[in-house]
């Protein structure tokens, strides 16, 4: 018998609406998702479909109106705000479309930050951050500030920052959306390679065909629910 696979990420009947004045938008209407540990999932959907809203709920940045989110068996939606933040800091990594590096910290300090936030000594964190930057060919830019780097370089920094504290789950929201095609390709290759090497579970919002083909599972968010996309049909 196959050993039971552990869900790294499970979402059950997630609903989320936004109310603005008299207008109410039901963005998520019962979204379900199950991503096994070490797997690589991709999320498709038109602009405004609710992909970022879903990632915010899955990561505990935002709370669903109803439904349940579990990460590695921990029910995120049952934790208070403080515990959710602590959990996120320890177990999750993020990569955003707009890179989101901290402008007042140098490149190496940006990468070291998730380690120091989790209690690592500064010296250790900076050393580890330096090693990671070396891995992505940016050792010589360690003392630069993010605004001196190209978009592709900033995203490489953001990727190693997201992995520095060895999260169990990495969430990425259109990580190549602000890059030209060729740079985007190399950033995706890098992300994919590191995720496999680190054994991290990843859910990525992307329309990149190569990445979709390389993923273990694909969902399309449409009408507020997640539809599994059969292999080869993305
Ligand atoms: N905080 C908010 N308050 C009100 N409406 C919101 C809020 N956040 C998102 N929305 C609305 O929810 C819908 C889904 O937005 P979301 O950003 O999740 O879409 P998306 O699929 O990520 O789109 P894109 O591909 O353009 O990034 C949109 O109609 C948006 O206007
Ligand atoms: Mg979005």
Structure description:
The chain has 234 residues and is of the alpha/beta class. Helix content is 35%, strand content 28%. It has a single domain, classed as 3-Layer(aba) Sandwich (Rossmann fold). The chain has helices at 51-58, 81-91, 107-117, 122-135, 151-163, 181-198, 209-214, and strands spanning 7-20, 23-36, 40-44, 66-71, 74-75, 92-95, 169-173, 201-205, 217-222, 225-229. The strands form 2 sheets. Strands 6-7-8-3-9-10 form a 6-stranded mixed sheet. The protein has a 4-stranded antiparallel sheet with strand order 2-1-4-5, with helices on one face. A hairpin with a 2-residue loop joins strand 4 and strand 5 (74-75). The protein is globular, with a radius of gyration of 18 Å. Adenosine-5'-triphosphate is lined by residues 18, 20, 25, 27, 45, 47-53.
Structural key phrases:
6-stranded mixed beta sheet, 4-stranded antiparallel beta sheet, 10 strands, binds magnesium ion, alpha/beta, Rossmann fold, 234 residues, single chain, binds adenosine-5'-triphosphate
Bound molecules: adenosine-5'-triphosphate, magnesium ion
- CATH fold group: Rossmann fold
Percentage of residues in strands? 25-35%
How confident is the prediction overall: mean pLDDT? Answer: 92
């Amino acid at each position: 018998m196959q050993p039971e696979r552990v869900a790294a990420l499970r979402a059950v009947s997630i609903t989320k609406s936004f109310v603005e004045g008299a207008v109410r938008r039901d963005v998520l209407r019962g979204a379900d998702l199950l991503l096994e540990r070490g797997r690589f999932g991709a999320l498709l959907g038109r602009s405004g479909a609710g992909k970022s809203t879903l990632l915010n709920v899955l990561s505990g940045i935002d709370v669903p109106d109803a439904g349940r989110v579990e990460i590695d068996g921990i029910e995120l939606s049952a934790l208070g705000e403080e515990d959710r933040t602590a959990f996120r800091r320890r177990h999750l990594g993020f990569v955003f479309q707009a890179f989101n590096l901290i402008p007042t910290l140098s490149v190496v300090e940006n990468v070291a930050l998730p380690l120091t936030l989790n209690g690592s000594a500064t010296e250790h964190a900076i050393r580890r951050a330096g090693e990671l930057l070396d891995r992505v060919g940016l050792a010589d830019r360690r003392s630069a500030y993010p605004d001196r780097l190209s978009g592709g370089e900033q995203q490489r920094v953001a990727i190693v920052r997201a992995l520095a504290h060895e999260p169990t789950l990495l969430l990425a929201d259109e990580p190549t959306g602000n890059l030209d095609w060729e740079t985007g390709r190399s950033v995706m290759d890098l992300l994919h390679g590191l995720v496999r090497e680190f054994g991290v579970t990843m859910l990525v919002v992307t329309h990149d065909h190569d990445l979709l083909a390389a993923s273990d599972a694909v969902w399309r968010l449409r009408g507020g629910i997640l539809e599994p996309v059969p292999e080869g049909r993305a």
